[in-house]
Amino acid sequence: NIVSNISSRDRIYEDAWTMAKDHKWLGCGSGAWSTVYFLYHDADEVWDAWVHCDWLEFTSTFGLLGGIPGILLICIIFLPIRKPAGLITHKWNHIGLNLGLTGCLVHAVFDFPLQVVSIQHLFVILCAIKMVSTRNDSNRMYTVGI
Question: Which residues of 44-63 are buried (b: 16+ CB within 10 A; e: fewer)?
Answer without folding.
Answer: eeeebeebbbbebbbbbbbb
